[in-house]
Amino acid sequence: MKHIFIVTGPSGVGKTYLSNYLGKHYPGEFETLNIVTTRKPRKLAHEGDRDFLTLDEFNTQKNAGAFFASGMYNANCYGFPFVPDNPEKHVLFNIWPALVPEFAKIKNVVLIALTVDSTGEQLLAKRLGDRYASQPNTLEKRMSVVKNDIDEISKNTMLISDHGKIFTVTSDETIHDEVIPFMLQKLQA
Fold it and tell me: Which of 64, 131, 157, 174 has its CA at 20 to 30 Å from residue 123's CA atom?
């Protein structure tokens, strides 16, 4: 039985890093279904899990029923493709925390929430500071979104725990020391 791993958490917590790492180091086990977005690509990031579209292209696909779910996040549109009924590999999706209740309905779902405490907030501020160094106003807005995302995870603690696990990211090692071993253990279940 293949699992659908849904990874959620605030910006900068390591969702895309985790998906890219698993795809690279376990290519026979995991696949990432590309999310469609109207967001502009980041200059310094490898974003193999995104397809970038214009708003018109996005709306055409949405109106054609191409997405399992779609929504707005940080003033950009995102669309999530349907998961195949019998995927050949374990599927990975990165979502924002407000979508957890909708994605929890998927058969064989494992929810992975990456959140932070006050120490981790400093780590996220540094990561986002590096990402938005030339845009100080954007950094302030992004940190506000981070706090909202952390609150969304808190609101869905029971749902996430019923379908997976919440990890508190305190350092760059948390993903390798805790999250990846948990996910690999799930492959054996």
Answer: 157
Per-residue pLDDT band for 22 (boundaries 50, 70, 90) equals very high
Whole-angstrom distance, CA of residue 174 vs CA of residue 44: 23
Residue type, 139: L
**Residue 100 near residue 114 (C-beta atoms within 8 A):** no
Mean pLDDT of the chain: 87
Stretch 6-35: mean pLDDT, rounded? 89
Instruction: Specify the DSSP class assigned to residue 88.
Output: S
pLDDT tens digit sequence for 57-91: 999 999 999 998 888 888 899 998 888 777 889 99
Angle at 83 between CA 31 and CA 102, to 5 degrees: 115
What is the sign of the dihedral through the CA atoms of 76, 38, 42 and 133? Answer: negative
Q: Is pLDDT larger for residue 74 or for residue 23?
A: 23
- Global pTM? 0.82
Give how far Cα 113 sits from Cα of 8, 58, 77, 169, Å: 5, 27, 22, 10
| Counts for the chain of helices (H) and strands (E), in that order | 8, 9
What three-state secondary structure class fits 68?
A: strand
H/E element, 120: helix 118-131
CB-CB neighbours of 187 under 10 Å:
14
Residues making up the chain, counted from first to last: 189
